[in-house]
């Protein structure tokens, strides 16, 4: 009868070893549209999948070798990215600590002592020496029998947090890549503005020479001359401002790629960037590749596992302990039969009264799960908004750019007519100045819109988690 009871108890313990008190995990459900409002989609929305991969080099869609080189330098030398990598490695090591709880813990100890006992020690024998040696060596074993899944849920939560940390690393990497691409686009736009202003300065210089000659010939007034001088100086000041902005942008790029601003320099771009052509339809499944959404989902999973940890604290905690060693009074073989000691047995602990601590821990775990779920929903909604924002920007800026191009062509034609009319003496120089100012403003606005389109394309690529060409 007794052997049967022992076998039944063993089978019960093995069955309970697979028990978990964590709630069945279900990712938070969001009521999302079937597709992006700003562009049709070819599939329904999907929740985050941490195993999905980002497009590793999405910036290559701009076909700029210098941008490719800068992005590689960022990956190799950016200190913030190095810090994020170290944080990820620390999270992995922290998660590994929980795995150790699944295995028996064995320690060895040794203690050679020479000690004196009190002459007035209770129950001291008359023949016992006052000073003696005590040498002890042994092994201790402790194994927590995880009947209620406490350790396994700690392991699951730790692994999920490590996965979230890996996604955090991807978030940091993607954010830095976006900053670099945005700054590079800004630099490209400033170089284009410099070319426009430099060309305009040449035209204004020629206009000033013409006006000065007319003034000296008493054909033009001094007002015409000062207007031409003002026009030239104003354009020069605008060029100076663009150069100042370029310096700041160049310094920021140097910082991102891990180089001091004092020694970092980029020559003006010779080939302007072009807005990448996007697909006719962006599948909503691209959204699940965003690392911030994957990280938020993993933290929901970890919080769910922590509920199981908190619930398991209410139940008895079983562990097996064992001791094996030897002890002598300074001589003799520690491992001889007479000097050996050992102990083996189970240890059971059950909370009786804790002043409400366990109840508070369980309520805390449930509240943290609700918090993580709310953060996940917020992250998804933010991601959808960012995609919609950039899609809308690209659509609206494209139309605005077409309209501004038409305005720039008209302004350029007006400038030509005004200049010819002034040379013929049909209009005043004020008409020329007005036409020139409008033409320059229109040209700069066309370029500014092109830069904004490029910025929106960078925003869309990163809002989708790294482009629309997924890595299988």
Task: Give an overview of the whole structure.
- By secondary structure, the protein is of the alpha+beta class.
- It has a single domain (40-107, 152-315, 370-472), classed as Outer membrane efflux proteins (OEP) (Up-down Bundle).
- Helix content is 58%, strand content 10%.
- It has eight helices and four strands, in the order H-H-H-E-E-H-H-H-E-E-H-H.
- It has helices at 2-16, 65-77, 79-99, 150-216, 222-256, 291-312, 357-423, 429-463; strands spanning 105-116, 131-145, 317-328, 340-349.
- The chain has a four-stranded antiparallel sheet with strand order 1-2-3-4, with no helix packed on it.
- Helix 3 (79-99) packs antiparallel against helix 4 (150-216) and helix 4 packs antiparallel against helix 8 (429-463).
- The longest helix has 67 residues, at 150-216.
- The radius of gyration is 38 Å and the shape is elongated.
- The chain starts with a helix and ends in a 9-residue tail after the last helix.
- The model is unreliable at 9-16 (pLDDT under 50).
**How many DSSP helices?**
8
Distance between the termini: 60 Å
Q: Please compute the radius of gyration using only Cα atoms.
A: 38 Å
Name of the top-level CATH class: Mainly Alpha
Whole-number mean pLDDT:
87
Number of strands: 4
CATH topology: Outer membrane efflux proteins (OEP)
For this structure, what is the CATH homologous superfamily?
Outer membrane efflux proteins (OEP)
Structural class: alpha+beta
Number of domains: 1
The helix fraction, in percent, is 55-70%
Largest sheet, strands/sense/barrel: 4 strands, antiparallel
Query: Which architecture does the CATH hierarchy give at level 2?
Result: Up-down Bundle
Into which percentage range does the β-strand content fall?
5-15%
Uncertain runs are 9-16
> Which series of helices and strands comes N to C?
HHHEEHHHEEHH
Strands in their spatial order, largest beta sheet: 1-2-3-4
